[in-house]
Amino acid sequence: MKTNWQTKKLEEVLEYEQPTQYIVSSTSYKEDYETPVLTAGKSFILGKTKEKKGIFPAKDLPVIIFDDFTTATKFVDFPFKVKSSAMKILHPVKNISDAKFLFYIMQNISFDHTGIHKRYWISEYSKIEIPLPALAEQKRIVKKLDEVFEKVATAKENAETNLQNSKELFRSYLQSVFAKPGKDWEEKKLKEIGVTQTGLTPKTANKKYYGNFVPFITPADIDISGNGSVRYDSKGLSEEGLEVGRKIKKNSVLMVCIGATIGKVGFATREVSCNQQINTLTPFDGYDAKLFYYILSTKSFFNKVIKGSSQATLPIINKGKWENLSVSFPKSLSEQKTIVKKLYALSLETKKLEKIYEQKLTNLEELKKSVLQQAFTGKL
């Protein structure tokens, strides 16, 4: 910190206002309504309201909204309403502090709020000391940070687009491979291709059923890396537990068949067991098992699963319906293997691209932190 900077507590440079008068009466939001309804959390804008009263006035902007329980913050420079009273509205003290400067400096504060659910602004957060230059210097720093972060945001947007495109590249090619069956292809139901099963959970009260004899797979363990990989070290069954549960052979396809992740697909490279939220296909000899992992990963098969599922709040497709879904594939085992080889190679290449863009996103976040650190030690 430069010698001509002061040290101030946040409560000395920010005045808080309770949000009570700005809380919406109704949560019936529509995009074509006028006034945004805000939260200080990740979602920020929850929707828009048509309510005309209790709107935060433009003359008092800009401000910082502060989640009193999580300490999350957002900078706001437009009229708004709020969802709840779980926040404070923070006003910069006139002629002393700049709202955006303080918002930026709060992004650089490390504050541990884990484990205790309580309001933090008055009792703790407002007591945090910060370095504070003169108002003109605050504005200069804000201008510089805005310029840097605008470039970072553009780079981040490009990286996110490229990341999405690399994922879509494989999905599109995968779909195209099976969209137009060749003349030497055939169509069969899953139950005609291999052994189908639904998982089963041995009684959890019987501790003898659980151990490390065989991995016990749940939906959370499937497709953990976006390439069908399965986590084997979360839970396990004992030898006795496997006798009660389902024995699923190596090279089986696993699909989640209930809930929000219905249609998620994994490929077991070792013998496993699984719970009742998962249906499995173990292809007969003469088929390339990995081919059916790819087929069941297509958008078209996912659509069949959704169409065949119950239309209740919690979508579910039972084994009877699932095993009767049909797929098209080459009759020739050699052609099956050729397709698998091509898809695997493309999958590896797209994963490399994804890692590059994911690392770039991580680097951009680290750059933001570094720039903030420089700014508030007087080095920007």
From TrEMBL:
<feature type="domain" description="Type I restriction modification DNA specificity">
    <location>
        <begin position="4"/>
        <end position="156"/>
    </location>
</feature>
<dbReference type="Pfam" id="PF01420">
    <property type="entry name" value="Methylase_S"/>
</dbReference>
<feature type="domain" description="Type I restriction modification DNA specificity">
    <location>
        <begin position="183"/>
        <end position="356"/>
    </location>
</feature>
<keyword id="KW-0680">Restriction system</keyword>
<dbReference type="GO" id="GO:0009307">
    <property type="term" value="P:DNA restriction-modification system"/>
</dbReference>
<protein>
    <recommendedName>
        <fullName>Type I restriction modification DNA specificity domain-containing protein</fullName>
    </recommendedName>
</protein>
<dbReference type="InterPro" id="IPR052021">
    <property type="entry name" value="Type-I_RS_S_subunit"/>
</dbReference>
<dbReference type="GO" id="GO:0003677">
    <property type="term" value="F:DNA binding"/>
</dbReference>
<dbReference type="InterPro" id="IPR044946">
    <property type="entry name" value="Restrct_endonuc_typeI_TRD_sf"/>
</dbReference>
<keyword id="KW-0238">DNA-binding</keyword>
<dbReference type="InterPro" id="IPR000055">
    <property type="entry name" value="Restrct_endonuc_typeI_TRD"/>
</dbReference>
<comment type="similarity">
    <text>Belongs to the type-I restriction system S methylase family.</text>
</comment>
